[in-house]
Design brief:
Layout lengths: L2 E6 L11 E7 L4 E6 L5 H11 L7 H6 L12 H18 L3 H4 L7 E7 L8 H14 L8 H13 L4 E5 L17 H18 L4 E5 L6 H10 L7 E3 L9 H9 L5 E3 L6 H9 L5 E2 L3 H4 L1 H14 L12 H11 L8 E3 L5 H5 L7 E2 L2 E3 L12 H5 L11
Parallel strand pairs: 4-5, 4-10, 5-6, 6-7, 7-8, 8-9
Antiparallel strand pairs: 1-2, 2-3, 4-12, 11-12
Helix pairs in contact: 6-7, 10-12
Length: about 400
């Protein structure tokens, strides 16, 4: 079997995070589905296509590790991982088995999903930036960031069956000490703690609750937050400081001084990048982004690294349902898997894009048992989101 073409869709619009879908075609008529990154120059995609056409799609290891320029999927980072997903889809279809079986077999029939609720309201990146501007102009907290709004959102999602939820708590507020400094005012600190206390009271002790700080604060202020929410038994507190700039020691200090579990890793690529973080004790669990971290091959290496240090993984995920279903296959095979992120609760296309409608049921994704990824696209649903006069595939 040989690859004959690689095609992508136009971006599917800002409301759908500009997802770019990908497919790999073969001379035997088998098509694999994957994903491409929005905003990447078309020339880079064309270079990848030239490198892949004529190659054997079943030799995923060779394509992953190839050292030839613009040829190895590993060297392309998250871009290559989105293509690799399509190759696993092809391999499963060609061999008549689901992707999870190619990875050694599944440990669970369904994969737990946690819902990222954003803040007290779901938002797009543009809306979030707009709220910061409005707060600076008005000097008032946006109603979406009031504790009551968080409580309403939490109850709504828990009523849908989710057993784990996450909120952003480093939101636009009128109490910043300085817009550029990472210090946190007492009012901002109290607001964060109050929000999480109110949500915990609303959902009870048996729904897992996590919170994301996006590395927004300095070390002493982040530590105070971690310690002041210890009584809430959070599933984790995510990225309390921005350690990726070279200061793993700051994360280690914080991690050693709080009982609140610390989670990080969504921006890292490859198992080697996670090694210092894990071996230095700078986190309690990892959240590698499956396409960004390198696809099925790398995520399993990362999971094994975490397992050797008695850590679980909870993969970050802001992708289309294609990658989410691929992630479910992968996560079903990982012993130390905790939960997979769902970041698209406010995007209708996420639930409509596949022949498998509404893949998440009661907070879980059932792992398909049919060959490949076990999904097909609903091209009619997707066509409604394409730019005018643009073909679906090119």
């Amino acid at each position: 079997m040989k690859i004959t073409d690689v095609q992508i869709t136009p971006p599917l619009g800002r409301r759908s995070r500009n997802w770019v879908l990908l497919r790999v075609l073969t001379d035997e008529g088998i098509v694999g589905l994957g994903e491409w990154a929005p905003g990447v120059a078309r020339e880079r995609f064309e270079g990848l296509k030239r490198a892949l056409v004529g190659q054997d799609p079943l030799n995923i290891n060779r394509l992953h590790y190839s050292s030839q320029p613009d040829h190895g999927l590993w060297s392309m980072g998250g871009l290559g991982a989105g293509v690799e997903i399509a190759l696993w889809d092809i391999a499963g279809k060609a061999l008549g088995v689901p992707v999870w079986q190619l990875l050694g077999g599944k440990l669970r029939d369904q994969v737990r999903v946690y819902c990222d609720c954003h803040a007290g309201a779901f938002w797009t990146a543009e809306e979030y930036a707009g709220r910061w501007h409005e707060v600076r102009e008005s000097g008032r907290l946006d109603p979406a960031y009031e504790p009551e709004a968080y409580v309403r959102a939490a109850r709504e999602v828990v009523a849908e069956g989710f057993t784990a939820i996450k909120f952003d708590v480093d939101v636009a507020n009128p109490w910043k000490v300085d817009p550029y400094d990472r210090s946190i005012s007492r009012r901002e600190h109290e607001h964060i703690v109050t929000v999480l206390e109110r949500v915990r009271d609303a959902i009870g002790p048996y729904v897992d609750l996590a919170a994301d700080l996006h590395g927004s604060f300095n070390l002493p202020d982040a530590l105070r937050i971690c310690k002041d929410v210890e009584h809430l038994d959070l599933l984790w507190l995510e990225d309390p400081v921005r350690w990726e700039w070279g200061n793993v020691e700051a994360m280690r200090k914080l991690c050693m001084q709080t009982e609140t579990p610390i989670c990080t890793g969504e921006l890292l690529y490859g198992a080697k990048a996670h090694r210092e973080l894990v071996e230095s004790g700078a986190c309690d669990l990892l959240e590698p982004d499956i396409p960004r971290s390198g696809g099925a091959i790398e995520i399993r290496r990362i999971a094994e690294l975490a397992e050797m240090h008695y850590m679980s993984i909870a993969p970050h995920n802001m992708t289309s349902p294609i990658t989410a279903i691929a992630s479910a296959h992968i996560c079903s095979t990982i012993p130390n898997f905790l939960a997979l992120e769902y970041h698209s609760h406010n995007i209708p296309l996420w639930s409509e894009m596949l022949d498998l409608k509404d893949p998440i049921q009661q907070g879980f994704i059932a792992v398909p048992n049919v060959p490949g990824l076990g999904i097909a696209l609903d091209e009619q649903a997707i066509a409604a989101h394409l730019p005018e006069s643009k073909p679906m595939w090119a």
